[in-house]
Amino acid sequence: MNLPFIDRIWSVRGSLTLDPFQSPAEAFGKLDGLFRAEGTSHKVEGDTLTFSKKDPLAQDKMATFNGGMLRVVEGGEGPELVYDLRSSALLFCFVLPFFFLGIAWLIKDSRTPAYVFAGLFTVLYVVGRILEPRLIKSVFRKRLSGETLPEGEVPLAQ
Amino acid sequence: MDGVRVGKRVIGADSPVTIGWENLPKVEGGPVKQFVFTYFQPAVLFALIAFWMYAPDSIAKASTAVGIGVGFKVLLLGLEWVNPRYSSWRLTWKELVTDLFYVGISYTLVKYAGKHIGSDAIVGAVQHLLDWEKFKWFIDMPLLFQAFLISFIFDFGQYWMHRGMHNWYPLWLTHSVHHFITQLNINKGAVGNPVELFLIGLGLGGFFDFLPRAALLAGAIGLAVGTYQHINVRFNTPRWWRFLFNTTEHHSLHHSQDYEASRSNYAGTYIFIDRIFGTCVDGEAELLGMEGGRRMSIREQMTYPFTEAYKTTKAVIQRRLHPVAVPAE
């Protein structure tokens, strides 16, 4: 379904410039560990990688996203990794303020806490919508540049 | 895995645990950090007790208690950031959203249910039937003792409700969802099926007539002790504290993937209740959860007790209707 404006609520898109002459297979190879986490299935077809996640672990670097597509395309300054990810967590957080406003409307006893939580989730959505795209871009960049995991951190790959 | 023998039980045969205080890691860092994370817990407890005993009536109100509670949790979130117990329990944006969703449900829908069909309603109904005036002597006792009694009576009830949840299948169905959490953070205590949150909120304290100030003081003791059950902070908790009170260490064992470890440390505030009834195990665990530590989605957390109850009931009925023939010897 193509929803160009509404889907920004739950979709995260971005791109990263790759090293010159880097093939799709090489780029996806560097990101491979991310897609071997528990509950993740993925498929590589030429220049395109698609993945989906079911109940990812809390510390999975991509836990916020439950599916998406990554492509290696030829950009103006060499090859680029273009990604399009979807997040039911972002959508859930977007809906929560309306849910708590509904509670405030239905249950008069709970009006004050319901308004407080509606406000809290509005703030959390804005934070998440800004923070999560930055974090995932940073994770992709680090993996593509060959940075190793911090000391003591173990990969989630099984 | 061999596990460790604790009394008649073997703890840690299914999943790694650390048993015994002497085997637990200490706070790492300079003298200031060591000092803060050694004396933080008692300092907050005594400060809150002093506040609720001596604060003037104009500020000793329920709204102040709510404000202190929220401020304290924000402070503890900061401590999780500064001095985490395990990096594998780091709070992420998604975990925070999930946890706060349950906190929101607790403060609205569950509280509403408690008021209208839970302990508030039951206490109201029963108080009309009996002569509760006879219990008025409670309010002549020292304030701190009243507060201790309120929190102890509530925790004693919670201990048996919690132990019941681990031993009687229908109650376990509601509680099992909470045991699917895979890490401890400040708000993880609220994560679970709402039916359980309703059941755990049932208490007997409302039957007795205490001074309102004593109830606020009891709430403060619960806040300053019980909050540490679910927290990702490394403390050098004093020996006397961990003997009397529940700690993160105790509760991490309770949430361990190890079955025997999970059947220990049931009290919410006073771990000495577990010591009295022989269910206390001193130690800690990092690997938490059920079914190998899989993370349950909110959708499954909402439906799990009901779908599991349906599956079990169906299996029982099928066994009754179509018993498997046992070959003769």
From TrEMBL, chain A:
Keywords: Membrane, Transmembrane, Transmembrane helix
Keyword Transmembrane among record annotations: yes
Protein name: Uncharacterized protein
Superkingdom as given in the UniProt entry: Bacteria
Species of provenance: Novosphingobium mangrovi (ex Huang et al. 2023)
Transmembrane segments: 89-107, 113-131
UniProtKB/TrEMBL annotation, chain B:
Parts of the chain that traverse the membrane: 36-55, 61-82, 143-161, 197-225
Keyword Transmembrane: yes
Keywords: Membrane, Transmembrane, Transmembrane helix
Family matches, as Pfam families: FA_hydroxylase
InterPro entries xref list: Fatty_acid_hydroxylase, Sterol_Desaturase_Related
Cell location: Membrane
Fatty acid hydroxylase domain ranges (all copies): 149-279
Coiled coil, from the record: none
Keyword Metal-binding: no
Stated name of the protein: Sterol desaturase family protein
Record organism: Novosphingobium mangrovi (ex Huang et al. 2023)
